[in-house]
Amino acid sequence: MQIQGYFDLRFEAAKKAFAALFDDPQERGAALCVQVGGETVLDLWAGISDKDGQQAWDSDTILNLFSCTKTFTAVTLLQLVGEGKVDLDAPVARYWPEFAAAGKARITVRQLLCHRAGLPAIRAALPAEALYDWSTMVEALANEEPWWTPGEAHGYAPITYGWLVGEILRRVDGCSPGESIVARVVKPLGLDFHVGLADSEFHRVAHIARAKGNLGDAAAQRLLKCMMTDPTSLSTRAFTNPPSIMTSTNKPEWRRMQQPAANGHGNARSLAGFYAGLLDGQLLDSELLGELTREHSRGEDLTLLTQTRFGLGCMLEQENVPNASYGLGRYAFGHPGAGGSTGFADPERDLAFGFVTNTLGPYVLMDPRAQKLAAVVKACLE
Question: Residues in domain Beta-lactamase-related (predicted)?
């Protein structure tokens, strides 16, 4: 496999580790970007980007980054906090009055951001097309009763997070959530990242497919068993209501919509650039960065059925939890996306990391491919 791009000679071992991914015949395409102290030390890509294996992964190939999007969304909202337009500890209903229905009047913005609001899923079955109708989804969530007493537990909101936080963005910032994220986070840093992709960009989007035959780790198998055997459970509803959530990533309507929990499109360079921008203070002041990265939730996740640890819209390092470690420092923070893509920062090393793949793995939190690459990068720095 021919590896394209740039690498600093100190990181030749990381380049070799990236190349070794393609020893697996199922690996389709991937990219890796690492910045240290704001300087790019790795910017690599390889493989194929299309469905039929005819189109090479290119320098400007982008793809759906799934939940990597969530931290972009949280940072955008925290900018509004910094401007005095949103109070983290105010009721959501201050900005979105209809949200107060069904016992939610006291749920705070902070609780939404750290997955403690009790709204990871919608109970009433929704049609597939509801996924693409913002008002339908926002109304359903406004009418939803929490799955637990808000603030007393946490459960990851894989897709409802986008409508919940996005509706506050929409109401406070006066524009659609994708526009807000692009204006506040993407353009200032010059990132190739999109929430609501223009049709003119479709030609460079990688086709995403699942790897076969790998059942993943114990956490993945536990979640899959729940989803296969209990159709009304919180976990099942969170990932399958509307039923189009899991099957839409390559569809034009998915790319076009603005779902700021799950459908950001970008590349490894945009992930590393975003986290470098957080580390060097371009996006948030130190106080707000502290809020983003401070532990708000820790322990058994009622949705993912595994141990999670969250700040505000970012997943925090759990060095003693194998499926939840970024593989670098204890203060690392970021967000994995479904199937393997991930972006994170390690403040101790002033390091920003982005890895993307269009070969979906089955893991719930961190994918072993990203963890292995991070471990080699760490060794190159020592």
Answer: 18-374
